[in-house]
Amino acid sequence: MVDRLETLGGALEDVRAFCAVSEFGTVSAAARQLGETKGGISRRLSRLERRLGVTLLARTSRAVSPTEEGIAFYTKAREALVWLDDAAEGARQSQDIPRGHLRVTAPVDIGMEVMPRIVVKFRKIHPQITVELLVTDVPLDLATNRVDLALRARVGQLPDMGYRASPVAQFQIGLYAAPGYLAAYGLPDVPAVLAEHHLVVSREFVGAAQLVLTDRRGRSHEVIARPIIRTSDYASVLRLTIAGGGVGPIPDLVAAEAVASGALLPVLTDWRVSEGTLYAISLSGKDAPARVRVFREFVRTELGDVK
Length: 307
What we know:
Radius of gyration: 31 Å
Oligomer: single chain
Distance between the termini: 54 Å
Strand content: 25-35%
Number of helices: 11
Number of domains: 2
CATH class of the largest domain: Alpha Beta
Structural class: alpha+beta
Low-confidence stretches: 1-6
Largest sheet: 7 strands, mixed
């Protein structure tokens, strides 16, 4: 298809000039309609006929009319121009009107425990936008996977990926446990007591878990404990702690709904394991389509309300 289109040399405006002459009947009228000179329109017509190798217009001193080949070419060219104009208008409107299909990726913990509520609420406000949520801990390349927006949580600096990243939320990884577990084993009142508790951790902790807790004044305390349950992600840590498995380090964004419902209680609230930033990454940043910009701001607002 590309090779065949190259016979026109990319001369879309030449085709548009031909269609205008066919519709208005004179070069002068077509020139006025397109805002060009008569000479400019005539050169476009000659160039188009030369590229196609066929006479499209019969010219007399009084009028211009399409030949049989010209009529056949006009019928298809006019339809193609309508499609192209409609496509161009749709592309322009995508910058101003939030609509269309939105493809979002998020890590497992955020995708499972945070995004469902946000996506459903967003769709109620913007029913003209459909959402595809890709939940994976594997960083997907945005261009290769046609991803509009990637949510990535980082403790520390985000590596340079060649895309536009903006922070949408700050989070802290704190300690949580189920009320039933705390009733059975007691509520830790100082970090050192954690060594006596059941610990549920994600796979980032290897061997004996070394937790470095930091309080609000910046003081640090190191606790070494052997986890009784180790799992792949914070979403699983959340579920296991809700089930009474023990004390688990969980990002506050992930634990928020469980805490609000009473399924989990914060432990050692003056201390945190670490803190980080949730980023929204897109291909175009501020120049992204309206559907991407609206969703990004919606996520930022919703997660701001969680804090």
